[in-house]
Amino acid sequence: MSLPTPLQAFSSVPKDEGRGQAGITPQGEPMTGAQALIRSLEDLGVTDVFGVPGGAILPTYDAIDDSVGFRFTLVRHEQAAGHAAEGYAVSTGRVGVCLVTSGPGATNMVTPIADAMMDSVPMVVVTGQVGVASIGTDAFQEADIVGITYPVAKHSYLVTKAQDIPRVMTEAFHIAQSGRPGPVLVDLTKTAQNEQMVYSWPQEMILPGYNPVTKAHGHVLTDAAKLFAQSHRPVLYLGGGAMRSNARQQVEKLVQVTGAPVVTTLPARGIIPDSDKAVLGMPGMHGTVVANGAIQHSDLLVAIGARFDDRVTGSLEDFAPVARVIHIDIDPAEIGKNRHADVPIVGDVGQVLDDLIPAIEEAQKTWGRPDLKPWWHLVDSWRHDYPTTWEETPDGSLAPQWVVKTLSDKADPATIWVSGVGQHQMWASQFVDFEQTRSWVSSSGLGTMGYGLPAAIGAAIGTQDDEAPRPVWLIDGDGSFQMTSEELATAGQMGLPIKIAILNNSVYGMVRQWQTLFYGSHYSQTNLHDGDAEETGITGIPDFVKLAEAYGCLGLRAFTEEEAREAIDQANQVNDRPVLIDFRVWKDAMVWPMVPAGASNDTIIYKPGIQPLAGIRPEQEEQEPREQTGADRAAMASDAAGHMKK
């Protein structure tokens, strides 16, 4: 048996060599490596693939014909292929698949790979690579994509032999969707694509040491149950891991058994219905006052598939200062990474809760169920006194918050909501009513502008064959949308009935908000269109209505609330092509509440001059608004916002 070369070692030892059966020809169907890749995708049950062809992947594209068992979506940019695969995966729970070429095609995939890694999205990315003999020679469109993606992918393969392809694809899909989901790269040399091989299925995986823990072990369940029995101010802090685990039923049962309030991070919106009284909304930088107040005053914080992200915690040392922590996560690297866990539980959220809930019920039989009425009295007072709201605009333009709330009120309850990244993303999380799981698709951890449109395409494609296809609404900003607006061609050509709401303020809104609050209103390079339309005769750069029409989509524009309602109603009736609505909104609208970066969540600014949690210790129950007394940046932000509004 010959040992693998260094290049082959990236994809582990081929199956026939690993068994020491040198000289024995594998049994199966003869074909090329490119044909084997297509056959592998079919045998893995793939129904949709997103991509763009190119030189180094042409043998594989040549193997795609009308008889293939999956639908191929040709996007206009490789990054869009990645985000479309993410939107597909998040909305369906299946693995998203991309197929692109080498060099710039592969490097254009780095952003969606990193995005999928941050948000634990299962994705398999197949990239073309130059021939084995050309690797390391700086050949045309050669890039070491395995090395480039090593820090931002769950796993990366370089495949140099055709016979490895079925096994590597089997492993790639298993890795992508097991344990903590994530993106897997398969870099496929032209040599491997063109070689002859013998295809057989199923394949045996070679993954020594890869055994994700899914069930809790030891005494951690009884320890956690005991903490629940001793807690009088518990909070369930739900993250994206709960959504990836499809743990809605278990979470609802946990809420019922414990009576604890729930906060949901950005990727967990909709894990249980917003209409449930237990749901306090999103915590953190732009979370609700009640969600932040509950965490800060909790005596038990139960992190379920969450990772204590800085946008949630603010100043980590000031986060939930008196709470004991139960941390449930399938990734052991997350346990204790940012916050010490009094009870660390490694395992799949759904399986852990299946075992934890009976343990809690047994503990309640022994110690009784804690009286949470005083806790709920405090929580409900925050919810009543500091609801998520907005003020009317001073110039008569549309309030972006009103637009989002109106979109939600008029939407089908089964709607999948997608967003880009920016102020509109936060307003969508705040004002859309999420009632179903897998109804929210957004770039959370990486915050990738341009994510929205391709992700909406992926969500629409992933659900269009369902018995009852779900409507898809994209809420985007004019800045974020323009980063991948070319994908209107993809959506228009396919006749996807995506509805696109652009909150058009002609600026990079979130950056402008920070410039207002922290940089003395110095708006450096954030204005996207200067000049009044009446003076310039230009409706906007671009004119989104004309842009939509150029791609075969329906374009609408709304300046007033009456026009907005009419446009939304019209859009909801169109089912044969995309609809884009250009909502002209106030450019100085801000996202409130807000915790300045790095400040304690106790300094949350409900609106300029009002910091409800500042100066209140966890054991106190005062509810009077406090003037700015928190961190310097919080005071600066509050003062700046108040001055601007005057």
TrEMBL record:
- Bias kind Basic and acidic residues: ranges: 618-630
Q: Which GO terms describe its biological process?
A: isoleucine biosynthetic process; L-valine biosynthetic process
Record InterPro entries: Acetolactate_synth_lsu, AHAS_TPP, DHS-like_NAD/FAD-binding_dom, THDP-binding, Thiamin_PyroP_enz_cen_dom, Thiamin_PyroP_enz_TPP-bd_dom, TPP_enz, TPP_enzyme_TPP-bd
* Biased segments, Low complexity type: 631-646
Catalytically driven reaction(s): 2 pyruvate + H(+) = (2S)-2-acetolactate + CO2
Q: Which family does it belong to?
A: Belongs to the TPP enzyme family.
Q: Which cofactor does it need?
A: thiamine diphosphate; Mg(2+)
- Gene Ontology terms: cellular component: acetolactate synthase complex
Provide the GO MF annotations for this entry.
acetolactate synthase activity; flavin adenine dinucleotide binding; magnesium ion binding; thiamine pyrophosphate binding
Enzyme superclass (EC): transferase
Q: What is this protein called?
A: Acetolactate synthase
Thiamine pyrophosphate enzyme TPP-binding domain location: 420-583
Q: Where is this region: Disordered?
A: 1-30, 616-646
The Thiamine pyrophosphate enzyme N-terminal TPP-binding domain sits at: 31-146
Q: Where is the signal peptide?
A: none
- Provide the species name: Bifidobacterium [indicum] DSM 20214 = LMG 11587
One Pfam family this sequence matches: TPP_enzyme_M
In short, the EC number is 2.2.1.6
Q: Which UniProt keywords apply?
A: Amino-acid biosynthesis, Branched-chain amino acid biosynthesis, Magnesium, Metal-binding, Thiamine pyrophosphate, Transferase
Give the SUPFAM superfamilies listed for this entry: DHS-like NAD/FAD-binding domain, Thiamin diphosphate-binding fold (THDP-binding)
Query: Start and end of every Thiamine pyrophosphate enzyme central domain?
Result: 222-356
Kindly state what the record says about how the cofactor is bound.
Answer: Binds 1 thiamine pyrophosphate per subunit. Binds 1 Mg(2+) ion per subunit.
Q: In which pathway does it act?
A: Amino-acid biosynthesis; L-valine biosynthesis; L-valine from pyruvate: step 1/4; Amino-acid biosynthesis; L-isoleucine biosynthesis; L-isoleucine from 2-oxobutanoate: step 1/4
Q: Does the keyword Cell wall biogenesis/degradation apply?
A: no
Q: Does the keyword Magnesium apply?
A: yes
